[in-house]
From TrEMBL:
Protein name in UniProt: Cytochrome bc1 complex cytochrome b subunit
Cofactors demanded by this protein: heme
Organism: Streptomyces mobaraensis (Streptoverticillium mobaraense)
EC number, UniProt record: 7.1.1.8
Classification of source organism: Bacteria, Bacillati, Actinomycetota, Actinomycetes, Kitasatosporales
Cellular compartments per GO CC: plasma membrane
Membrane topology: Multi-pass membrane protein
Length: 546
């Protein structure tokens, strides 16, 4: 008798169902039972902001699915052909095979135009979701130990996603994307010494060359997506390994997670949310046309598309170059185009400034503990202010990237907009930092008043001796816990100039910088002391509480 016809005790019995036999076979080789037992009941907290990461994941899956369909019909070639397809206005015109095949997908492949639209919109939503998700992680302090590596993985996904989107945007070889590629070629050529070599390598000769579509195609569908897929998998593995962060509340500590199990509750919700995201993107794609290349026409090196704008995530880089003065210097017979090269250097520096913040914050605090409870942004005013200042700088440059459209749509001077962006890049982030930190301090004071005096009810009461007072509703224990559970770090101090043996010690420059940064972030004037239990008892038991 075969083993399939024996029961668990090894005795003859009922034959196991086929699915169970397949599962037993797989478990004997992969150990999936123990793996599933350890992870399928893993607890995940429930909060609407955690769905931002799911939007990114589902958009990425939609991009892959629609991208596979598009590769079946797209020809990544710059060979010149004469168009004889369905779109009458372009019939008889010379164009590249890439542009011709994109027209074929749009007008002759069943569902091709909708898939193109979904693919493009999903890419925009993926990067927008990454941006918002990254800011949620930043403002709540979810990047702290042990999640610094996962923060870097997420940031690299956003960074690589920008270039993946740019290479895909350039593949149709239309006049709009060709203008953007020409813009990038100019930026590459501004690199001292090696700029011309890089340009020849990327384009296979003098711009536009004859190979850049094929090269961008390989990078777009193989290299960058492969790296990003690996980062997504690593990101999810670390989320499961470290356990999910959660917002403070009753019963929630650094050592537990309060929420729902992965299977079946969370998986059911996630599955439904995936189809909601897919449906929303499909609806947007069906209603709002994006990148109508047939209206723009094929790329010609001697033509420029009017009002050419990149997708929003590259507007920051373009804005830097548009508003930078046209500085040039000549050294030993060579011209350095600083008006392009300096923005090319500033672009990654601004992006990576926020990527390295977790390490700077950990260095300034000296905190080496693990953190699984999130911060309320108001309780970390310096971090929140820095994040808002970073976003302000990003969006000021986004205005610079579309300065011509701002000028034409709002009837403004192009020069005035350019000068506003030049000054705003330095002034607006500083003002945003100061305003945000003051707002956070005000919200901390408001929380302190709520804890000590309760919530304003709007009910006015007259006391026997004639005084009018507003009745305050006491907060629940859950609300009191939420408003007082956070920690308030103390700034670091320099060690005494003389040790216990009377030997003089000299603080290093690094230690002085660390203490100065710590005081600027966590000094006494950067926090409003939270209400203590003694203060609460004194006020609630006295006659002054209404």
């Amino acid at each position: 008798m075969s083993t399939a016809e024996t029961n668990a005790a090894g005795k003859p019995g009922r034959k196991a169902p086929a699915g169970e036999r397949v599962a037993d076979w797989a478990d004997g080789r992969l150990g999936i039972y123990s793996l599933a037992k350890a992870n399928m009941r893993k607890i995940f907290p429930d909060h609407w902001s955690f769905m931002l990461g799911e939007v990114c994941l589902y958009s990425f899956l939609i991009i892959i699915l629609t991208g596979v369909y598009l590769t079946l019909f797209f020809h990544p070639s710059m060979n010149e052909v004469v168009y004889h397809g369905s779109y009458v206005p372009l019939q008889g015109q010379r164009m590249s095979e890439a542009f011709s095949s994109t027209l074929h997908i749009s007008f002759d492949v069943r569902g091709g135009l909708l898939i193109r639209q979904i693919h493009h919109w999903a890419a925009l939503i993926f990067l927008a979701g990454m941006f918002v998700h990254m800011m949620r992680v930043f403002f709540t302090g979810a990047f702290r130990k042990p999640r610094e590596i996962n923060w870097m993985f997420g940031f690299l996904l956003f960074f690589l996603g920008m270039f993946t989107g740019f290479t895909g945007y350039s593949l149709p070889d239309d006049l709009l994307s060709g203008t953007g590629v020409r813009f990038v070629d100019g930026a590459i050529l501004s690199v001292p010494v090696i700029g011309t070599y890089l340009s020849m390598f990327v384009f296979g000769g003098e711009f536009p060359g004859g190979d850049f579509v094929a090269r961008f195609y390989s990078v777009h569908i193989l290299l960058l997506p492969g790296i990003m897929l690996g980062l997504v998998v690593a990101h999810l593995i670390l989320v499961i390994y470290h356990k999910h962060t959660q917002y403070p509340g009753p019963g929630r500590t650094e050592k537990n997670v309060v929420g729902m199990p992965l299977l079946p509750v969370y998986m059911a919700k996630a599955g439904g949310f995936f189809f909601l995201v897919f449906g929303a993107i499909a609806a947007i794609a069906a209603i709002a046309t994006i990148n109508p290349i047939w209206e723009i026409g094929p790329y010609r090196p001697d033509q420029v598309s009017t009002g050419a704008q990149p997708d929003w995530y590259m507007g920051f880089a373009e804005g830097l170059i548009r508003v930078m003065p046209g500085w040039e210097i000549n050294i030993w017979g060579h011209t350095l185009v600083l008006g392009v090269f300096i923005p090319l250097v500033i672009f990654p520096l601004v992006l990576f400034a926020i990527a390295f913040w977790p390490f700077l914050e950990a260095w300034a605090t000296g905190d080496k503990r693990e953190h699984h409870l999130l911060d309320r942004p108001r309780n970390a005013p310096t971090r929140t202010a820095f994040g808002v200042a970073w976003i302000a700088a990003y969006f000021v440059m986004l205005v610079g990237g579309g300065n011509d459209l701002w000028a034409t749509h709002f009837h403004l001077s192009l020069n005035a907009i350019t000068w506003f962006v030049r000054i705003g890049f330095f002034v607006v982030p500083v003002l945003s930092f100061i305003a945000t930190r003051r707002i956070c301090m005000g919200l901390q004071r408001r929380d302190r008043e709520k804890v000590l005096h309760g919530r304003e009810s709007g009910i006015i009461k007259r006391l026997p001796h004639g005084e009018f007072v507003e009745v305050h509703e006491p907060l629940t224990q859950e609300q009191l816990h939420t408003l007082t559970a956070h920690e308030q770090p103390k700034p670091l101090e320099l060690e005494p100039e003389v040790d216990k043996n009377g030997v003089a010690r000299k603080a290093s420059m690094g230690q002085k910088m660390k203490v100065r940064l710590s005081k600027s972030m966590y000094g006494e004037d950067k926090f409003v002391p939270k209400a203590t239990a003694e203060e609460y008892q004194e006020i609630t038991s006295g006659h002054g509480h209404h």
